[in-house]
């Protein structure tokens, strides 16, 4: 039991998330679940996330307003839009994460004191923010909103699309692949070490897990969708999708333009979504299937004027009500972002993936491994190859059947309940 908490007491929970849609959607859903159980929940974040948090029916407390005024997130993260592969990871670690974490470490202690928060739920990729609760002796858990990293090397790191393989050669390759994490960590260490020194924290910086929560690390990836990992830390928990189908800002859509044709929903996500050739290739490939209709969501980092001719069976939008469209879809063309993939599986929709960066290659590899679709490396993307995969996945019942199997699994898994139960248990409620 932690100081300041008594058995059965409600929690005053503080949530912190990376200010990005793919992180905010699962974190706000989990916050809503815990709030529904009678706990006081406050979301602490930069001003740009306020609308999403309030749409979820949650209290919001801004911080880092001077460093991150309204509009700054889109401006700063726009730099990754046209990157790909490990360049996306390196740019994020070098240019985006250090100033965000520096500001958070400066202002979070004051917000915790002001709000009376007595426990924290942290985004695992909001790296080193956990130093604050460590300093203040406040319990914290961490959530993997993206595909979690396997630090053991028994499976490929999520940043790679390598298949699961237990041969000595593959395991050696996996260990080599982990070196990118050392590179990424080095770019953020000065910020973390400076705060730890000022706060009197004694951290073993040679141990990458030194600041990881000892209570619980929860991933929204279902165990059934992962590669088999031989050894997991005792505090690591699979939960399942952190989705509740509610609490999101409404997105207008021309529903009257949908026909009775089988629907393909395509989206390259909200971050690394500015590569012109990807959208033009999708349009050309789906144009070869006039018996189907395409809804293509292009995001805010792409100029649709560069897209070229738009086939008559296509609706192009900046943003789309993804959950509602997936309920109607026969196939999803995706960047293999974890949230989109889990939402597609929750509706029993098979996929063709075009991973671009971050954890997308690892998610795409699992799509193929579990038979719910196929993927195509961005460097090998052509109209012909994409058309072949669309025909293969849509025309073969095995992909649809496996996707529907996952739909049943996810319905029974109830990821929000699992995650909330774990959090209550480790916090002594």
Description:
The chain has 429 residues and is an alpha/beta fold. Helix content is 40%, strand content 13%. It has helices spanning 21-36, 50-55, 72-77, 86-115, 131-136, 168-177, 179-199, 276-286, 322-326, 338-346, 360-369, 383-395, 397-413, 415-426, and strands at 12-16, 40-45, 59-62, 119-123, 140-144, 217-219, 236-238, 263-267, 293-297, 314-317, 329-334, 351-353, 373-375. It has a 7-stranded parallel sheet with strand order 3-2-1-4-5-6-7, sandwiched between helices. Strand 4 (119-123), helix 5 (131-136) and strand 5 (140-144) form a beta-alpha-beta unit. The longest helix is centred in the N-terminal third of the chain and has 30 residues, at 86-115. The N and C termini lie close together (9 Å).
Could you outline the blueprint of secondary structure elements for this entry?
Layout: E1 12-16, H1 21-36, E2 40-45, H2 50-55, E3 59-62, H3 72-77, H4 86-115, E4 119-123, H5 131-136, E5 140-144, H6 168-177, H7 179-199, E6 217-219, E7 236-238, E8 263-267, H8 276-286, E9 293-297, E10 314-317, H9 322-326, E11 329-334, H10 338-346, E12 351-353, H11 360-369, E13 373-375, H12 383-395, H13 397-413, H14 415-426
Parallel strand pairs: 1-2, 1-4, 2-3, 4-5, 5-6, 6-7, 8-9, 8-11, 9-10, 11-12, 12-13
Helix pairs in contact: 1-14, 4-7, 8-12
